[in-house]
Amino acid sequence: MSIIRDIDLAPSGENKIEWVKRNCPLLRSLEEDFSQTQPFKGIRIALSIHLEAKTAYLCKVLAAGGAEMFVTGSNPLSTQDDVAAALVKAGLNVFAWHGATDEEYNAHIKEALSHHANIIIDDGGDLVHMLHTEMQDELQYVIGGCEETTTGIVRLTAMDNAGQLRFPMVKVNNADCKHLFDNRYGTGQSVWDGINRTTNLIVAGKNVVVAGYGWCGKGVAMRAKGLGAKVVVTEIDPIKAIEAYMDGFEVMPMNEAAKIGDFFVTVTGCNGVITEPDFMVMKEGAILCNAGHFDVEIDMKRLREIAVEAREMRNNIMGYTLPNGTHVYVLAEGRLVNLAAGDGHPAEIMDMSFAIQALSAKYLVEHQGTLTEKLIDVPREVDLEVANRKLAFLGIQIDTLTPEQEAYLNNSTI
């Protein structure tokens, strides 16, 4: 049933998954719990997340809980073929391979959704979009779903506002144990892992332009500063712009930042962040990359149109000669640099995010038919369970309120 590149790659993928498991105590504890309680017995789960080892271990945890898994990737360049093979060898259904064309990518999504899925686990909203546009016959089987990303929640909110969303979706990205750590520390580290391994250039002393100062942008800027860069932030939100300024960064419009930047990292979730007027004022040798979910933040279509020459400089680095003679370089085709040119977030970070995913999916099954809102927050008790488990694995203890303190805080007359 699966559609993958090569089953013989499985041993390499199994090693990667085993390494992740060793460094994900939260997911290990959930795997043990789920194996006994079987919360997903009889449940089919369609999952589209960047198909690498951490995602694979999440899939195995859900399968241990009784789920029948139908897995695909959420980006053509982030799928690792050996990991996909390892999941198939473990008995899961996988439809993905690295470097899929747009047509193949969509076909893989359709295949993952063609088996009457009850729970949808999405990363960017492609599964939900496909269900509501081209596969509406499958909607009748869906209990609900979980969304991993800021970009996906933006898409879901637009659908909900238009009255189009047909089943409840848990906003996993908005959970404290997700965005405070995954978006900030995970993105911050993994983006620079991808840039550094791809370019082999020094960051210290360079001008780094970070487009967007949400939680992901904060992490990218923080890590750039730690590497010795001078950081410039571009923003459209005046409050976030002030925050960036007070965090010690320069703030200016993109067209001004384009004149001084050595590295550019877009992390906004919006399209057209770096466009032709910006390309034309860039310094010789400027390096551009994207850390937002979709490859729309850097206007790659227009860059390819205006370039008088384009050639591959290194693996995952394409050089473009502009009409004015300037050379600019784009990493990973303008796709997610931390996954298309790296291994994504550290395992310990995704341990928390994927624990939120697994427990949110369990919540949906347990509350089937009782949820009235289409967009719902991660229940606070789920966030706290993940936080408390994480603290325990870290060997950290914290204070608790005494009965007198609880009474004091609950006294409405104070």
Describe the structure in brief.
This protein is of the alpha/beta class. The protein has helices at residues 10-22, 25-37, 53-64, 81-89, 102-112, 126-133, 150-161, 176-199, 215-226, 238-246, 254-257, 276-279, 300-306, 337-340, 347-366, 380-394, 403-410; strands at residues 44-48, 68-72, 93-94, 119-122, 144-147, 169-171, 207-211, 230-234, 250-251, 263-266, 286-290, 309-314, 317-321, 327-331, 375-377.
Structure description:
- With 414 residues, the protein is α/β, with parallel strands linked by helices.
- The chain is built from 17 helices and 15 strands.
- It has an eight-stranded mixed sheet with strand order 9-8-7-10-11-14-13-12, with helices on one face. The protein has a seven-stranded parallel sheet with strand order 3-2-1-4-5-6-15, with helices on both faces.
- The model has no long low-confidence stretch (mean pLDDT 96).
